Amino acid sequence: MKELKVSAINKGTVIDHIPAGRGLKVLEILNLPKDSTILVAVNVRSGKLGRKDIIKVEGKILNEEEVNKIALIAPSATVNIIENWEVVEKRKVEIPNEIIGIIKCANPNCITHYEEVTPKFKVVSRKPLKLKCHYCERTMEEDTVLKHLL
Amino acid sequence: MRFQDVISIDDFRKEDIDYVLRVAERLEEELKKEGTLKYAKGKVLATLFFEPSTRTRLSFESAMHRLGGAVIGFAEASSTSVKKGESLMDTIRTVENYADVIVIRHPREGAARLAAEVARVPVINAGDGANQHPTQTLLDLYTIKKEFGKIDGLDIALLGDLKYGRTVHSLAKALSYYNVRLYFVAPKGLEMPRHIVEEISNKVEIVETSELEAVIPKVDVLYVTRIQKERFPDPAEYNKIKGSYRVDLKVLEKAKDTLKVMHPLPRVDEIAYEVDNTKYSAYFRQVWSGIPVRMALLGIVLGVIE
Ligand SMILES: [Zn+2]
Q1: Searching chain B, which residue's CA lies closest to the CA of residue A109?
Q2: What whole-number distance in Å separates Cα of residue B199 and Cα of residue A137?
Q3: ipTM of predicted assembly, 2 dp
């Protein structure tokens, strides 16, 4: 597994420790530009998680806001910023104060299911995860949130 | 102007509520002296009732007329282009050209918030599904304040279906801003949701019980709501508890002299008619409260009243 060492790119972002099987979903949520060079490794053996997924984005430094979008589905992920083959910054993803898009409201009678509008949620609590729909004001807990990924 | 729209009671801080109640009080005085007022002269209110609620609509329309303004609108969705499949957002973008303020009632939760985001004119929520009906809460508070001259220091019981009733949820949250003691009186299975109790229990004293009788002598306000038969999986269970939550003269025997009974109306049989003409009944004055409170809200969001 040496070829997957995080420092193996010149410049870019490596998202490590994604729960195995969520890598492609994370990629979808990141919604990176079409011309990006991206490497996705799935089911990589890892001491910590057993198996994990890794995403490398070459040439692009992702900012906190861009990466934090994945915190809902990959709370264990770590973000490594690479410059000149070196890890210059390492951080954990953090759930932002507001979630826009990414998930849909669990309330079937919420107006967001009937109109062309992006779902929006306020993060009421991070641990345990609790979100409140900006529109219908219903709250969702972690297991419900994960069932409602867009 | 302190707020643009009236969507959810959760958006209101205590000082916003007190401000609305003060403006309403002032307008009620002016109404008594002058009859119809002129604050909203030349302004148009659109009442968009995607589901019927005649009382609420008439109350808003009466309030706008008494402010000197004009009213347009529809009373149910079937008579509009909504039936032809028009989106709520398009309806709002159309109507905002006709009106200076929009009052909306809609069967889906979140509809009023969305309408307010889309509209260039202020929006007032007159009920969005099971979610919010903030003007009801404000008029409930106004009624209490009018009956007692204050809200602080009172013992207030909320009675009936506390689980599904959005009216009592909003009222409980709003009352938690004040120095009151709350009694939640509900049959087993219809108790106040835990998340609401948790949210307010650090601000007010709460007593939860299923026994109305024990609570009656202690309270200043008895806020009665309906218990719907459909909420009980077993009809026998409903028949068993039904009688014990009906407010009649016998139930009120041990009440304080100054007790006021309130109800958001319409009632079915949860308050006996014999209570209507007693010193206890405040529910028809509560209906009147809707007028000054809605006048205040219309005037504030229109920017014609300070
Ligand atoms: Zn919702």
Answers
A1: B108
A2: 14
A3: 0.91
